[in-house]
Amino acid sequence: MDKEQIDEALELLWVLNEDGHDDLNRFRLSSEDDEVDSLIITLKSEDLIVVTDKSIHLTEKGRMKAKALIRRLRLAERLFSDVFEMREETVIADACKMEHILSEELTDSVCTFLGHPQTCPHGKKIPRGECCKIYKVEIEPVVTRLSEFEVGSKGRITFIVPTKSSRLSKLNSLGISAGSVVRLLQKKPSYVIQIDETTVAIDPDIVKDIFVRKTS
Ligand SMILES: [Zn+2]
Ligand SMILES: [Zn+2]
Questions:
Q1: Would you say residue 12 has pLDDT above 70?
Q2: pTM of the prediction?
Q3: What is each CA distance from 115 to 14, 109, 158, 160, in whole angstroms?
Q4: CA 202, CA 68: separation in Å to the nearest integer?
Q5: pLDDT at residue 140 above 60?
Q6: What's the gap in Å between 83 CA and the centre of ligand 1?
Q7: How many CB atoms lie within 10 A of CB 64?
C-alpha cells in the first residue's frame, strides 16, 4: 500500500462522513482502488480506521490526517479557481497533484493569502487551520510571483501554477517544487535561480508560474 492509496482512502472516508455515511459497503463501492480489501487491512493496522461488520469509521488519528488532506485539497482548488481562474474540470485534476503544488508546511500561508476561505469552489467546507483562528492579529504574509522578485532576493516557493503539466514535471526534475528555497540570481538576459547548490536557468514564462514568499 503506498501513501497515495492511503491518502485517497482517508479523503474518501472524510467525504462520505460529511454526507452522513458510515457504510462499509458504500466505502468499498466508492473506492476506486483495486486492492480495497487489503487497503482496509492496512488502514486498520495503522490505527486510522475502526471497522465493524457493516460500518467503517475514522479513528481520531485517521480523522486528523484526513482533515489535513482535505484542507490542502480544497485550498488548492480555491487557489486554482479564484487566483488562476481555471475551469472546474481542470481544477480537480490539478488539485490531485497538490503535494507537488502546495506543500504541507505552507498550507497556512496559502490559506492566509486567500483570506481564509470557508468553502471550496464546489461549496464543500474547508477545515479550519491554526491560521484561521489567529489571522486577525497577524499581518498577512506576502506572496508574489518570482518574476517580481529583486535580483539577490531569497524566498520559499509557496505554490506553482502548472499551466502545462509537462512543465510541472520538468520543474520537479530540476528540484523546483513547493517548499524549495530559491534565490533569484539574474533576470536579464534570462532568469537564473539558485536552488541549494544548483544554478538553473529558466524560461520567463515559467518564472511567472512560480509564487514565492520572501525570506530573509
Ligand atoms: Zn471542492
Ligand atoms: Zn486560515
A1: yes
A2: 0.65
A3: 24, 10, 15, 19
A4: 33
A5: no
A6: 15
A7: 13
**DSSP string of 59-128?**
-HHHHHHHHHHHHHHHHHHHIIIIIS---HHHHHHHHTTHHHHS-GGGHHHHHHHTT--SB-TTSPBPPP
Polymer length of the chain: 216
At 101, list the grid cell: 503544488
Q: What is the pLDDT of residue 116?
A: 87
Distance 137 CA to ligand 2 centre (A): 12
d(CA 82, CA 75): 10
145 close to 210: Cβ distance less than 8 angstroms: yes
**DSSP reduced 3-state for 157:** strand
- The confidence score (pLDDT) of residue 213 equals 84
From the CA of 18, the nearest ligand is 1
Query: Hey, what amino acid is at 22?
Result: D
Query: How many A from CA of 65 to the centre of ligand 1?
Result: 18
Burial category of 174 from C-beta neighbours within 10 Å (exposed 0-12, middle 13-18, buried 19 and up): middle
Q: Which residues pair with 184 in a beta bridge?
A: 193
